């Protein structure tokens, strides 16, 4: 099987990937061709040691940074991000809130639009900005990696255009998150193996720091230096896996000017509400300091307190803080900062009072285009449920079952083959069923306290939409295992939130209350606890688009589905072809199958899913390292394709992400590996001398 050859080629691939990478430090460069400006970033996924709450721990990072680097762009730019996976587990990255017109290939959710990027591999994401302007963010979209692999995307107005308000003196990303003492991958593995709820985080964080209400944290708390009279733009991002937040700054009011990547009619609040996935662009006028008002001081807390609505879910109720510090007039005596007022942890009225204030700017420069006529209506119930414990299993969920979650009582089963690739190759049938229901199978009193439909079942059911159809989705919370608010996020689109309310949606009465004039334009809507929210969008972005609750635990329990939007007739209404470097998308576009000379064969490359001691993903086995195969191999090894499966892979085939498959071109004489995980250039049968040199250098 010429195993001896393989490591050499792998090394060559690595040398290429990382040799080039090492020469190009992690920074942005930009170039302008045609009308679009393109920008380039290098993201190295790697482990780094961080100390929080008095303990050191290894976390996954981008470029060693936590939170990760900020991407800067202007409206309409294209951003290329080379992601080099130097970590020891599979990963993908998602550009949250970027519509990616016609380009689902770079969207990122694992097993939806791509197979994960394996350790030692690279994937270049092409992030096509269109109408987005304001604050967005990027994050890992595999397992629980998002906990530490996330950062801001700042999209400035096009050159020659301006903000619809006075330009602030300074802009600062404020990223809300969480910190666990333990390894998040391990927590995920444990929770999934027992079907139990997740352990709550040990602290909430602002820009990666819990703040000085926590042990060993005051010196490192995030500090925002300000000068009296200046205006600061805070780009607030909720990157937390499990927590919605109230956010406030003592002594200051906040003027909200944008949400997700769209401007809104400015309104001023003492505190704001932000759900995971959402962003708020906020102006802060530094009008205090010392000697300006009677109760002035020079330090004020900014604080994030959880909003938690499900009384039966465990959660971390701690408040994260940072310090706003006037640096132009430091007083002689240091005084402790003042704490802001924040609503109580379960104050649903406060959360809702904030959400109903969001209205699009709807100006001449920033118009709205709210669809009035609806082609396709869906009512989607949101629920946390149970799946009966399998005989012989040890389940630690409710009533000794497994905890699960569902939309219209379908608990989404993540496939092992990326749906996008299967759909593109017209072999969707083996991967997903195109019959996600438009409404719940039975109507019931969704928000009352009885428990119908306590059980759900796993299935991969997706919704197929005609190109250009106007879709209205009403998300309806249910009381099945407790009412709860849910941040529902759609990939590939922003949508208008045309209505929201408490109780059960009434299709006869509630549409009369819709705002079709200036509804907010968002990518993540907070569906109120025991209530509903209605969104509208025109399905004019062909592709495969994930839709899910942005609470990570609900997502892994199945609270999601996929919208497949068909191609339209015109050329600009069709999906782009896949890029040449899609991880493990096999077929002609990959250049691998060539003229039909290639043959599939199976090699035993390890594919690891969870790090360290956690259980392996289903079907994978625990393996010890084998030298010369892949660097420092120990972890979970995916099963190999059976000879039958491998034979079944003809031209245009789509391989499952979790099976080991590499292609060997027998006609090349020396069993040259041409696996798709390798950089394109290493697929030649004779390496050019330059790369050979690099190979020598890297193997010494
Ligand atoms: Cu912010 Cu599917 O993600
Ligand atoms: Cu949820």
Features of the shown structure:
single chain, 700 residues, mainly beta, Immunoglobulin-like, six-stranded mixed beta sheet, disordered N terminus, binds CU-O-CU linkage, binds copper (II) ion
Task: Give structural notes.
- With 700 residues, this protein is mainly β.
- The protein folds into four domains: 23-159, Cupredoxins -  blue copper proteins (Immunoglobulin-like), CATH 2.60.40.420; 165-360, Cupredoxins -  blue copper proteins (Immunoglobulin-like); 376-573, Immunoglobulin-like (Sandwich), CATH 2.60.40; 601-682, no CATH class.
- 9% of the residues lie in helices and 33% in strands.
- It has a six-stranded mixed sheet with strand order 11-10-13-18-15-16, with no helix packed on it. Strands 22-21-26-31-28-29 form a six-stranded mixed sheet. Strands 1, 2, 3, 5 and 7 form a five-stranded mixed sheet that branches.
- Helix 1 packs across helix 7 (689-699).
- Mean pLDDT is 82; it is low at 1-26, 586-619, 621-637 and 660-700.
- Bound molecules: CU-O-CU linkage and copper (II) ion (CU).
- Copper (II) ion (CU) is lined by residues 486, 549, 551, 554, 559.
- Residues 46-159, 171-327, 436-568 form the Plastocyanin-like domain.
Describe the structure concisely.
It catalyses: 4 hydroquinone + O2 = 4 benzosemiquinone + 2 H2O. The protein is mostly beta strands.
